[in-house]
Design goal:
This protein has 449 residues and is of the alpha+beta class. The chain has 14 helices and 17 strands. The structure holds flavin-adenine dinucleotide. The site of flavin-adenine dinucleotide has 29 residues, from strand 3, helix 5 and strand 9.
Length: 449
């Protein structure tokens, strides 16, 4: 039972592996992993989080935390898992252009509350992702070249630290802890509530163009050159996708190998079409879905999967993409390659991502030109080779790799975070983590403690 909760409350919120509801409470988005924490506390209030942290300390269990399970990369063994998924309140202050969000809310909920006011959060490509998990890792999304990473908009965080105390943290009250929470990812506490700024974006010119995969050798170098010409108000990514024969996909895309070029801009549709024109004309598209859309429909740009499935993923940040790098990518993921890969994706960064928010933070990878992400399916008959296939994409581009983003740390890395930051930032993160969690109650995968 939870240390500080009444027996009735505790029986509702604390689950052991044999309890009904345990599997649903720990379920990850990537079903390759079967997490087996020793206990799960389904927090319904910040007090439940406080009680859970105190109980873990008393029982000698490490504390882990999960909201949606989109970022699970370890099996959580021997830990007390605090599930924040029920702490999902969202309050938008339209005048201040801010949202006060529970520690388990998703971007979808924030978007739904913000959109009626013509406002958007700086979120990622998939709105099913949790707000806290995303922002703690910085958070790179389709609006980031114009508005910065998600954590640039973080105003305040309320979190429960290892001593079981709930604290309000912002740039004035505890600048060092606040800077750690802006991109330092894991190990400082459990967020019960946060306040984030919203941007005045109601509509977009955005979407994806699907080209035949055979055009990849033409499209990739042209895309690389083209993204360098885009204003900060526009962003793009490109993915080599091996689509399944899924009847819910539009018929021309079912079972096809395609190049999926994504484009997002806040400029007018007319100007957006001008910007996109050079790459639109690179090949005859199978489907061209770029157009005017409500900003709240941002998920349609990447069309990331929304249902859990077993995958293996790997990622890297790249300093540049010379022709040799693109050739290396095509050699492992391009046309004619027999591979079970689902996706090899390049995202173009730069713009406001590199400028930062003008306050101390811990965002990794500012200055990297591109993000690389690969995904392979973990089901028969290819599961045995999927890890090597996903990792092989990242390995092929090692000469251009300049680290990785904590949010994209996949199974290939076991969620190891330590090497992602420059030495000074990493030393600062360790110092703050030691100050607030001297006994290492919160699990920090791969940190050199
Ligand atoms: C389909 C998909 C698309 C994605 N797109 C993007 C993208 O465009 N840009 C991007 O930057 N990332 C993206 N991500 C990565 C995502 O931001 C991270 O995986 C993030 O950690 C997910 O947070 P979560 O709460 O949804 O996941 P969870 O698995 O619930 O949490 C992951 C981790 O976040 C931390 N965390 C979560 N909640 C709390 C809390 N309340 N207090 C303290 N720590 C907490 C913990 O360290 C936890 O282990 C994507 C992931 C997926 C699966």
């Amino acid at each position: 039972m939870s240390a500080a909760a009444s027996p009735a409350t505790a029986s509702r919120v604390t689950l052991s592996p044999d309890d009904p509801g345990y599997d649903a409470a720990v379920a990850p988005f990537n079903t390759t992993l079967t997490p087996r924490p020793a206990l799960v506390v389904e927090a319904r209030s910040p007090d439940d989080v406080v009680a859970a942290v105190r109980r873990a300390a008393a029982d000698g269990l490490a504390v882990t935390v999960q909201a949606t399970g989109h970022g699970l990369v370890t099996d959580l063994a021997d830990s007390l898992l605090v599930s924040t998924r029920h702490l999902d309140s969202v309050r938008v202050d339209a005048e201040a252009a801010t949202a006060v969000v529970g520690g388990g809310a998703t971007w979808k909920q924030v978007i739904a509350a913000a959109a009626p006011h013509g406002l958007m959060p700086v979120c990622g490509s998939a709105s099913g992702v949790g707000v806290a998990g995303f922002l703690l890792g910085g958070g790179h999304g389709p609006l980031s070249r114009e508005f910065g990473v998600g954590s640039d908009h973080l105003r305040r965080v309320r979190l429960v630290t290892a001593d079981g105390v709930e604290r309000d943290v912002d740039a004035d009250r505890d600048p060092e802890l606040f800077a750690a929470l802006r991109g330092g990812k894991a190990g400082f506490g459990i967020v019960t509530e946060l306040e984030v700024g919203l941007v005045p974006v109601a509509r977009l010119y955005a979407g994806g163009v699907f080209f035949p995969g055979e055009a990849a050798p033409t499209i990739l170098p042209a895309w690389r050159d083209w993204v360098a010409t885009l204003p900060d108000e526009a962003s793009s990514s490109v993915a080599l996708l091996r689509l399944p024969p899924d009847p819910t996909l539009p018929p021309p895309l079912q079972g096809r190998f395609v190049v999926h070029l994504r484009f997002t801009t806040t400029v007018s549709a007319e100007r957006g079409a001008e910007l996109l024109a050079p790459v639109r004309a690179l090949a005859e598209p199978i489907a061209d879905l770029v157009g005017e859309m409500p900003a709240a429909a941002l998920d349609a740009v990447h069309s990331d999967p929304t249902d859990p499935m077993p995958v293996w993923d790997a990622s890297a940040l790249l300093s540049e993409l010379p022709d040799t790098a693109l050739d290396a990518l095509l050699a492992v993921a391009g046309p004619g390659v027999e591979t079970p890969l689902i996706m090899a994706e390049l995202r173009a960064f730069g713009g406001a991502i590199d400028r930062g928010c003008g306050e101390p933070d811990s965002v990794a990878g500012r200055g990297a030109a591109f993000g690389l992400y690969s995904l392979a399916p973990m089901f028969p008959p290819v599961a045995a080779v999927a890890p090597a296939v996903a990792k092989g994409v990242v390995d092929a581009l090692t000469p251009w790799s300049v680290g990785a983003l904590p949010n994209f740390r996949g199974l290939a890395d076991g969620g190891v975070l330590g090497p992602l930051w420059d030495d000074a930032t990493y030393a600062r993160l360790l110092e703050v983590a030691h100050r607030y969690d001297p006994d290492g109650l919160f699990r920090r995968a791969g940190w050199r403690l």
